[in-house]
Structure formats: C-alpha cells, structure tokens
Amino acid sequence: EALEEIDPDIQVSIVESLSYLLLLAAMGWHRVLDGPDTTPVVGLVHGVIYLVYAAVVLAAHRRHGWPAQQTVLLLFVAAVPLGGFWVAHRVAGGAPALPGATPVTS
C-alpha cells in the first residue's frame, strides 16, 4: 500500500518512527564511525516531527474520546524506537492501545 493511501494519522506515526531511526543512525555514524556530527540537525527535524505526531494524537484523543491513559500510552510509545510502527499497526487494525479501551481509529 502506497504511503499516500494510508490514513494521515497513521502516516505521521510512521514518519515519526523513521525520523527516530534516522536520528539513532546519525548518532551512531558520528560516535562510532567518526562521521560528521549531523545529530543537531537530524535531532531538530525529529523533534518537530514528534511535536506534529503529538498534536495528531491529541486531536484524535478529542475527536474519538479516547481515555487519557490510552492517549498517554500512544505519546509514550513514540519515544521507543519502532514504537510509531506499533501505533500504526494498532490504528490500521482498529485495535485499542489498551485492553478494554476504545479502538484506536482515525
């Protein structure tokens, strides 16, 4: 499925995860391989993308009436590498982030 065919709420979690992986790669490239330090630039871009992700999650929280605990989990999971992919999987599957909670749908 092409990225433009995926729901925007899911797209942002995928982009956020990819930017996190890029940030980790930039740090490794600089520290382990003695490459140039691109971390400040990549970190800034990742930070902006995370803020967009957080805004999308908060808007979806209001739009769908998710419990606060589920919303906090979705915000926290993005801080874990590959966590945004988990969010995208849960949203695409219409599954709740927490057992018994309202399904995470866009």
Describe the protein's architecture and organization.
This protein is mainly alpha-helical and 106 residues long. The chain is built from 4 helices and no strands. Helix 1 runs antiparallel to helix 4 (83-93). 26% of the residues are buried. The model is unreliable at 1-5 (pLDDT under 50).
Relevant terms:
mainly alpha; 106 residues; disordered N terminus; 67% helix
What is this structure, in a nutshell?
By secondary structure, this protein is mostly helical. The protein has four helices and no strands.
**What is the first-to-last residue Cα distance?**
17 Å
Percentage beta strand: under 5%
What structural category characterises the helix and strand content?
mainly alpha
- Percent of residues in helical segments? 55-70%
Mean pLDDT, rounded to whole units?
79
Low-confidence stretches: 1-5
Q: How many strands?
A: 0
Judging from the principal axes of the Cα atoms, what is the shape? elongated
Rg, rounded, reads 15 Å
SSE order, as H and E? HHHH
Tally of DSSP helical segments:
4
Largest beta-sheet characterization: none
Layout of strands and helices, then pairs:
Elements (H helix, E strand, L loop, with lengths): L7 H24 L7 H26 L3 H10 L5 H11 L13
Helix pairs in contact: 1-2, 1-4, 2-3
